[in-house]
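Q: Please design a sequence for this.
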């Protein structure tokens, strides 16, 4: 099976005496924006690993009783996000595998997982069980698949994450200790990954050599937490310690913390985390996401200072950028598009017609704020153009005289292979239309994207510290056979 593109959240906690399942629950709850399709937590009581995972939001998957059943001093959790591939329980994480020779052919997969909404699993005490949670995507899994088939394991139904956990477990069954197995399998992984793996007595965090997806370490009551974003630390009372470094393996166990560099670091943090994914109260590479987004707006104001009567952000992500723009040009800002808070990110439904409905169900204009006005509407990005087109239409219907569309990022021209899951290049509007053609398609009075240089300036980071492949088509990690899906535009 082709590996699945996933923008996900991972969360891990280690600490004797801590209520690890509840901490993981609240950590995942703070990371809900990174994935709404499924959620899961694995916990170790030092003897067996117990997992509960299910389809839906964190609050829908867990209740008090289920959390109470997840006992122990170590936990890893995962929220899954996917727009392609199956929206099935068998892709939910954490994924369990058995690393002990005592149980050669154990598969923890439910035989008919797609028929169920949730599943609870428990390892045997002698299974050498491990549980894995992965954020990112491996565009090529050839080396992992080759290793697994040498072990006689059929990988046809495996996602990239399943291959990783099975390969580590297979290495353990050959006699390697848990952390040595992780080290040996690490070079077989080509792609973007921020991964947490636990055995019954250790928690391991690894990050690809480019550090494409975020991963941060925090401290809590003598224990440790590792989370996709720093916004998960505050709500559970943890203090930020540091980011896990690109290419680093961090081991947390009863001796404390130890770290090893598994690959020469070549930092290339995904700039789209700043643009869209991350929560505004997170810090990425030590920078406030809110401030960077506000800078996007300030830069755009320098590039395209419009004469507009009102600036209107598309909630939520674009709000700080719209504030920056409005402040810079002294234009009033109004929340003239109201978002239904109970509807989640529109990409959640993969089918186009459902997604189109989704935008109208999610956003409604307030006519009193736009009637008779020249409106500068602000979004963080244009991907397919579906959302923007409807927004322009809604604002005209609400009485706007002009609708200028401002975008807090450059045109997305190239597909992603590292886990942000933009659609195929054929579906990216900027890969197929010029800016004037896009403006005409949206029906907007004018359309302005932030320049590439303006985006870099706003982050305060150097171009060579970032992965900007969706704007440039330069992929820092080999995308192998998938390169044929990319057309230079
Ligand atoms: P579109 O209608 O395809 O142009 O979608 C653009 C909207 O989707 C913007 O409002 C963004 O906030 C949001 N967006 C951008 N990238 C992603 C992504 N990878 N996943 C989900 N939503 C996204």
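A: Design:
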């Amino acid at each position: 099976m082709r590996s699945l593109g996933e923008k996900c959240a991972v969360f891990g906690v280690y600490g004797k005496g801590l209520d690890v399942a509840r901490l993981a629950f609240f950590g995942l709850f703070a990371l809900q924006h990174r994935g709404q399709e499924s959620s899961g937590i694995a916990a170790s009581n030092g003897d067996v690993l117990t997992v509960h995972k299910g389809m839906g939001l964190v609050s829908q998957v867990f209740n008090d009783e289920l959390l109470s059943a997840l006992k122990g001093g170590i936990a890893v959790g995962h929220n899954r996000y996917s727009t392609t591939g199956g929206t099935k329980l068998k892709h939910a994480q954490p994924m369990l595998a058995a690393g002990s020779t005592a149980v050669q052919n154990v598969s923890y997969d439910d035989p008919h997982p797609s028929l169920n909404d949730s599943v609870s699993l428990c390892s045997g005490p002698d299974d050498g069980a491990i549980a894995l949670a992965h954020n990112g995507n491996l565009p090529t899994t050839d080396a992992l698949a080759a290793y697994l088939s040498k072990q006689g394991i059929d990988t046809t139904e495996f996602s990239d994450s399943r291959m990783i956990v099975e390969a580590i477990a297979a290495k353990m069954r050959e006699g390697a200790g848990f952390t040595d197995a992780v080290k040996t399998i690490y070079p077989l992984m080509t792609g973007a990954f921020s991964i947490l793996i636990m055995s019954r007595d250790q928690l391991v965090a690894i990050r690809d050599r480019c550090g494409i997806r975020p991963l941060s370490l925090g401290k809590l009551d003598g224990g440790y937490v590792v989370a996709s974003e720093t916004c998960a630390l505050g709500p559970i009372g943890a203090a930020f310690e540091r980011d896990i470094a690109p290419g680093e393996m961090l081991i947390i166990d009863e001796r404390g913390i130890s770290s090893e560099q598994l690959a020469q670091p070549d930092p290339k943090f995904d700039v789209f985390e700043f643009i869209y994914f991350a929560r505004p109260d997170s810090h990425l590479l030590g920078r406030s996401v809110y401030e960077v987004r506000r800078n996007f707006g300030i830069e755009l104001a320098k590039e395209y200072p419009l004469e507009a009567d009102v600036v209107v952000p598309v909630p939520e992500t674009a709000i700080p950028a719209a504030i920056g723009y409005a402040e810079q040009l002294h234009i009033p800002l109004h929340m003239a598009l109201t978002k239904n808070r109970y509807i989640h990110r529109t990409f959640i439904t993969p089918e186009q017609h459902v997604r189109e409905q989704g935008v109208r169900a999610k956003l409604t204009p307030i006519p009193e704020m736009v009637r008779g006005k020249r409106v500068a509407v602000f979004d963080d990005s244009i991907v397919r153009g579906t959302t923007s087109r409807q927004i322009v239409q809604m604002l005209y219907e609400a009485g706007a005289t002009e609708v200028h569309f401002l975008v807090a990022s450059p045109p997305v021209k190239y597909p992603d292979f590292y886990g942000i899951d933009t659609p195929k290049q054929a579906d990216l509007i900027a890969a197929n239309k010029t800016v004037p053609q896009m403006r005409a398609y949206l029906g907007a009075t004018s359309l302005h994207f932030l320049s590439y240089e303006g985006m870099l300036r706003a982050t305060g980071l150097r171009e060579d510290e970032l992965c900007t492949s969706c704007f440039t088509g330069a992929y820092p990690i080999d995308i192998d056979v998938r390169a044929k899906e990319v057309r230079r535009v």
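Q: Thanks. Anything notable?
A: Residues 291-339+357-461+473-485 form a domain with the Rossmann fold fold (CATH 3.40.50.2020). Confidence is low (pLDDT under 50) at residues 1-5.
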